[in-house]
Automatic annotation (TrEMBL):
Family annotation (Gene3D superfamilies): Uracil-DNA glycosylase-like domain (3.40.470.10)
Classification via InterPro entries: UDG_Type-4/5, Ura-DNA_glyco_family4, Uracil-DNA_glycosylase-like, Uracil-DNA_glycosylase-like_sf
CDD domains documented for this protein: UDG-F4_TTUDGA_SPO1dp_like (cd10030)
Protein name: Type-4 uracil-DNA glycosylase
EC number(s) reported in the record: 3.2.2.27
Keywords, comma-separated and alphabetical: 4Fe-4S, DNA damage, DNA repair, Hydrolase, Iron, Iron-sulfur, Metal-binding
Membrane-spanning intervals of the chain: none
Membership in a protein family: Belongs to the uracil-DNA glycosylase (UDG) superfamily. Type 4 (UDGa) family.
Organism: Candidatus Colwellbacteria bacterium RIFCSPLOWO2_02_FULL_45_11
Annotated GO biological process: DNA repair
Annotated GO MF terms: 4 iron, 4 sulfur cluster binding; metal ion binding; uracil DNA N-glycosylase activity
Residue ranges of domain Uracil-DNA glycosylase-like in the record: 33-178
């Protein structure tokens, strides 16, 4: 398994490749590749940068980002110790939802990012990120549940921006975030209980809590 320094180098090379990829859409916007610990056990994946992210070149730095920082801190974690990125790594015009062809164009870079970091737990934030990993899942029904995606545990949850508009969503987010450190701590036990490899997304709920 690559050491942290090697992973950081591989991520930098990947970011450079993306920056120079002229086939990628939304090239008028700034690249927001991702940031955090290159060897983290936890990777948060959002849908796309917004206004402030585009301006600063960093993911989750606006109001939703400040809430994400608080949620991370409230469960005993630090932002610098996790990895944060988006599927689409350039801001869609007017903060519109990312289009299917945009998601498809950026998807190989996210896949490679995850391969390099090799986290134990991936937390998709919002339905677009969730459906990248779990194409048939519904955010209202499946948020907070736990799934296997290959050897990764997936804990889909609402996007922090949704919690800024709803106390109910905020309460769900807080409950879901409490599952993250527990999933990391018990990961090896869950893998052993699971047995053989799973090639398609599968519920892990019974194995976890």
């Amino acid at each position: 398994m690559p050491e942290k320094d090697e992973k950081e180098s591989l991520l930098k090379d990947l970011a450079d490749a993306l920056a120079n990829d002229e086939k990628i859409p939304l090239r008028n916007a700034n690249l927001v590749f991702g940031e955090g610990a290159a060897d983290s056990d936890i990777c948060f994946v959002g849908e796309a940068p917004g206004f402030y992210e585009d301006k600063e070149g960093r993911p989750f730095v606006g109001r939703a980002g400040k809430l994400l920082d608080k949620l991370i801190s409230d469960v005993g974690l630090k932002r610098k110790d996790v990895y944060i990125t988006n599927i689409v790594k350039r801001r869609p015009p007017g903060n519109r939802d990312p289009l299917p062809d945009e998601i498809a164009a950026f998807a190989p870079y996210l896949s490679k990012q995850i391969e390099i970091i090799d986290p134990k737990v991936i937390v998709p934030l919002g339905r677009f990120a969730m459906n990248y990993f779990l194409p048939t899942a519904k955010i209202s029904k499946d948020q907070g549940k736990l799934f296997w995606w290959g050897k990764k545990l997936i804990i889909p949850t609402y996007h922090p921006a949704a919690a800024l508009r709803s106390t109910t969503v905020m309460e769900e987010l807080e409950r879901n975030f409490k599952k993250i450190p527990a999933a990391v701590r018990k990961y090896e036990m869950f893998v052993a209980d699971r047995g053989g490899a799973i090639s398609e997304p599968q519920s892990a709920q019974k194995s976890l809590f």
